[in-house]
Every structure is written in C-alpha cells, then in structure tokens.
Amino acid sequence: MRAILHELALPTFHRFARRWRYAVLAEDLPTDGAGADPPAQQAKWAKIGLLREALATFPLALWLDADILLTRDDEDPASHLHPDHFQALAMEQVPCEHRVNPNTGVWLLRSCPAAFAFLDAVRAAGPQPGPWADQGAVLAALGWDRGDERYYWARPGRGNRFLAGTSWLPPGWNQPYLGRRTDADAFNSSARSYADRPAVSRPHALHFMGMSPAARYRHMAAVAKSLPVLGVAPGGASPTPGGDGMSPSAPPTALESH
C-alpha cells in the first residue's frame, strides 16, 4: 500500500488539506500485507492506536484509508458531524450480500471522552477474524448485528450509547469504486457484488476497496489521471513516520492514513 498511498492517495489528501486547513499525518507502517493475511490485519488494527494519538493532539481527526482518492475538495465532512455526537461514518450497502454496515475507510472523530471510551470498547472487542480486523470490532462496539461469519445479512442491531452518538456521512463520502473488475481483481467480495451497489455520480471520496494490490494500483492510477493537477504538499502539513490521516490545523485537526 505504500506506493498507492504516496503516489496516488496523498496528493489528493494534501489538496483537500490546503482547502480546509488540515494537518496531514501519513504513517508508513512497518508491516504491510494483502487481503486478510496477518500483516494486513496488523496494519488495519493500527488504525485504532493512530486515531487515539491524533485525538490526544487535535480537536478532530479524519481517518482516510490509503486506498481512497479524494476527488473533490468543496466540502468538509466535519459539517456533517452533529454538535452532540462524537463520530461520523458512512454506510456501506451491499444488496448481493444482504448487508448494510458502517465502513471505517472514512472515519471522523471528535476529541472528547465519548470518542476515547468508544476506542476503548473497540480495543476491548479485539481484532476480529476474517477480512475486517478493525471494522468488525467497530461493529461489535456499536452493538451492530454482524450477520454470519462473512458479514452477510449484517444490519442494525440493538445498538447502544455509542451508536446514538454517531452521525452519518452522505454516501459520497465513502463511495465504493464501481469500475469494471473481475474476480481475479477482487478480495473478500466477488466482482458481482459491486454491480448493484448504490452509486453517487460525483463523490467526494472514492474507495477502491476489496481489490488485489495490483488491481487497486491500476484502477486508482487511471482515475487519478482524470483529477485536477495537484500541487506539492503544503508547508503546514506534517508527515509522520509510519498509515494516513488528517487533522485540521486551525483549529488544529488531523487527517490520517496508512
């Protein structure tokens, strides 16, 4: 994911950060993998600790997975965070798998006791088996009905106070990439499962989820060529060793990714 992050995703993050005064914190993790192999699961789980670190410094933290392109910069997702809520996520709907669930590829958190308590609950749930080490734990902490072992039939469950404190981002803030893919390109879900997913015509965040590393780079590079020319990283952005994320700088906020 390092080449994807630095060559394709980060330029779009920096453009967005300049517009909305976020500090970009890009983390090159010591382990990297593919699919659900152990290094990939470790990288996914690192998101929880990195978000906690960002929230200790910034009033808001916006996590972006490294396989996301920000295709527009005319809106700050923080505008969709209810003043009484501690986080905002977008919903993923997969009719082929009869599931609907929050997707943590784009994850906005406010620095407050509720956010730290939620991250504690996610950590207590622990890395989950299957493809979603971190996201499965987030669903558990929200009181979500996770369906079967493949997350088929996942749907809202009984919920809890954490779910009540969650705002919902518009679907364009975590739009699955629906370009042509084959089963050889896919991981976790079949290529067919992307055919009937809801689509936003002009998304803010395009998520190249569920793809092999080679296919992901190929498709992201093709889309990135169509985006506006991107400038160099802003002087105010602060890259750190190790995923990706952002936080605005005035007021300070972080945008993170790995």
Q: So what's the CATH class?
A: Alpha Beta
CATH topology: Spore Coat Polysaccharide Biosynthesis Protein SpsA, Chain A
State the share of residues found in helices, binned by percent.
Answer: 25-40%
Distance between the termini: 8 Å
Q: Helical region count?
A: 6
- Tell me about the largest β-sheet: 7 strands, mixed
Shape estimate: globular
CATH architecture: Alpha-Beta Complex
Write the layout of secondary structure elements.
Elements: H1 2-20, E1 22-26, H2 38-55, E2 60-64, E3 68-70, E4 87-94, E5 99-110, H3 113-125, H4 133-142, H5 161-164, E6 166-168, E7 175-176, E8 205-207, H6 213-224, E9 244-249, E10 252-257
Parallel strand pairs: 1-10, 2-10, 4-6, 7-8
Antiparallel strand pairs: 1-9, 2-5, 2-9, 3-8, 4-5, 9-10
How would you summarize this macromolecular structure in one to three sentences?
This protein has 258 residues and is of the alpha/beta class. The protein has six helices and ten strands. β4 and β5 form a beta hairpin.
Descriptive notes:
α1 runs parallel beside α6 (213-224) and α3 (113-125) crosses α4. The chain is built from 6 helices and 10 strands; from the N terminus they run αβαββββαααβββαββ. The chain is globular. The protein has helices spanning 2-20, 38-55, 113-125, 133-142, 161-164, 213-224; strands at 22-26, 60-64, 68-70, 87-94, 99-110, 166-168, 175-176, 205-207, 244-249, 252-257. β4 (87-94) and β5 form a beta hairpin. The strands form 2 sheets. Strands 1, 2, 4, 5, 6, 9 and 10 form a 7-stranded mixed β-sheet that branches. Strands 3-8-7 form a 3-stranded mixed β-sheet. The chain has a single domain (2-248), classed as Spore Coat Polysaccharide Biosynthesis Protein SpsA, Chain A, CATH 3.90.550. The longest helix has 19 residues, at 2-20. By secondary structure, it is α/β, with parallel strands linked by helices. Helices cover 29% and strands 21% of the residues.
